[in-house]
Amino acid sequence: YKPVTWEYSRLNITHTLMSKRKLKFLVEGGFVCGWDDPRLPTIEGLRRRGFSAAMLNRFCDEVGVTKAAMTARWQVVEHVARTALDASAPRRFAVLRPLKVELRGLAAGGKPFESPNHPRNAEMGARRLVLPETIYIDRDDFREVDAPSFFGLAPGKEVGLLGAGVTIRCDEVVRGGDGGVTALVCSADGSAERNKTKGHLHWVSAAEGMRAKVRVYGVLFTPEDPEGEAAKLKCGGGGGDEEGEGDEADEAEAASPESAPSWLKLLNPDSCAEHEAVVERDLAQAAGPPARSADRPAFQFQRLGFFCVDTDSTAEAPVFNRIVPLKEDKEKKAG
Predict the structure, then answer these.
(1) Considering the entire predicted model, what is its pTM?
(2) Using CA atoms, how far apart are residues 30 and 6, in angstroms rounded to an integer?
(3) Distance in angstroms (rounded) separating the CA atoms of residues 129 and 164
(4) Given this model, what pLDDT does residue 151 score?
(5) 210-217 sheet: strands from edge to edge
(6) DSSP string, 162-197
(7) I want to staple 159 with a disulfide (CB 3.0 to 4.6 A). Which of 57, 124, 151, 199 is the partner?
């Protein structure tokens, strides 16, 4: 019997590094939070980020296997995850940057209604919500100066509230001692004759919502090819290293206290943003520490993206990680 050896190229992914030496430097240097940091391309990191084994296998199927050097775009990973989660993730409301809104004109006790857990899968059931007199909306959904491309709330402007069948109009802006906006006073209209609006906002009840940490992860490195860009910085605009080359040189460079690897300068400063959010209270039922071998409970926070339960989470102090954003995020930011 003569064994056969097949050699294939390394699977590289944009906006990150696959070199074990460089990943070890990031971990031991405290630039990331361990080998399971959700920004790393390690199996533990990807799983903590919320990517299931089925998603990772599907991604590998899509990019294929080759002997030639290749780099897969991170957007392909996101597309695979988004497609799977869109079909299976229950919908919930969460507000990352809460802004209090007082509603006037609602009936005593608020407006109860049924909200489906998934808009296209009735078998996933529904949950009962109540629109109360005090809610939170996202601070990013309010501007003091309106613009034609902005579909959020502004003084004198009407928007809808998702699921509630109610439109609200901003009548008053409440300011704190520093002049910043601390709350809004709005009139609510739940009648059948209410005005149609272009914008619809997600919201959470101030009385029923619970506090949670929500971590929004981005790419680890700003450029698509951090190793190539680092080589250009070192060589004053020259070409990049071949795959795997330059690791020893970077380690020697990092050993000097006066210098750091050139690729370290390309870390994305906004790769992780932690928010003190307000979420629906029933999320506490799924917020306990997830089993190591099981897929993490995942949800779509409406208008925000897909999120999963983090390792640090407990039912009393939930922590959620963003897996991937929604497709329309770019359009939302442009507005």
Answers:
(1) 0.89
(2) 37
(3) 9
(4) 95
(5) 91-92, 298-301, 305-309, 319-325, 210-217, 272-279, 94-95
(6) TTTTEEEEEEEEEE-TTS-EEEEEEEEE-STTPPP-
(7) 199
Residue 72's DSSP bridge partners are 13
Task: Report the C-alpha gap between 110 and 93 in whole angstroms.
Answer: 18
Confidence at 335, pLDDT banded by 50, 70, 90 = very low
The Cα diameter of the chain in Å comes to 83
State the pLDDT at residue 252. 53
The residue assigned the tokens 């009735």 is 122
Is 275 in contact with 213 (CB distance < 8 Å)? yes
d(CA 193, CA 9): 63
Per residue in 235-254, pLDDT tens?
765 444 444 445 555 555 54
Quote the tokens at residue 247: 């690791």
Q: Quick check: 333 and 216 in contact, CB under 8 A?
A: no
> Rounded to an integer, what distance in angstroms lies between the CA atom of residue 41 and that of residue 154?
41
pLDDT at 240: 45
Q: What are the two backbone dihedrals, phi and then psi, of residue 330, each rounded to the nearest 5 degrees?
A: -60, -40
Q: Helix (H, G, I), strand (E, B), or coil: what is residue 213?
A: strand
Cα gap 39→49, rounded to integer Å: 8
Taking a C-beta distance cutoff of 8 angstroms, is the pair 208, 124 a contact?
Answer: no
Residue with tokens 């002997």: 67
Q: How far apart are CA 139 and CA 153, in angstroms?
A: 10
Residue-level pLDDT at 244: 46
Q: What ranges in the chain are assigned the alpha helix state H? A: 20-28, 43-49, 53-63, 74-88, 226-235, 247-255, 329-334
CB 206 within 8 A of CB 136: yes
* CB burial readout 135-168, b (16+ within 10 A) else e: bbbbeebbeeeeeeebbbbbeebbbbbbbbebbb
Each residue of 70-120: pLDDT tens digit? 899 999 999 999 999 999 999 999 999 999 999 999 999 999 999 999 999
